[in-house]
What does this fold into?
Amino acid sequence: MVITVHRVALDPGEKAVWVEVEVVNNNAGEAEWPVVPVATAGGAVAYGDYLRSTHLPGDIDAGQSVTGWLFVPLDPIALHESDTIHLRFPDVAVDGYAAVGDILVDVSIVTPVTGSACMWGWGRYAPPSSRSTPIA
It folds into this structure.
C-alpha cells in the first residue's frame, strides 16, 4: 500500500491543514488503514478528523486506489515555510493482516501560491509529491 500526498491547503479560518492523498493498494489482498493520520509539525500534534474529511473507505481492495482530502486540525499559523508535516497512518494491515505497520509520509512546506486561484481563499501550498514507504 502506498500513500501519496499531492497537495496541501492551509485553512487559517478553521485552524487546519487539508491534505490531498491518493492511496493505492498494490498488494494481492485487501488492505485496512485508519484513513486519517496523526500529524506532527513544529512540536504540535494533531489528529485527523474523519467527519470533516472526504469519507474514504477504511478497506481498500487489491489493485484499488482512492483519492480525497483529509482534514487535520493543525494550525497553519504555527507552520513555517521550511517546516515538514509528518503524517503517520498507524496500524495499516495488508494481505489479511500478514503485515501490519505504520505508514509515514513527510510533506515539506514550500513557497506559497497566492492570488485568485487560491482554493476557497485559503493560502495554498503545492508541495512536491510526497510518497510513503509501502508496506509489502
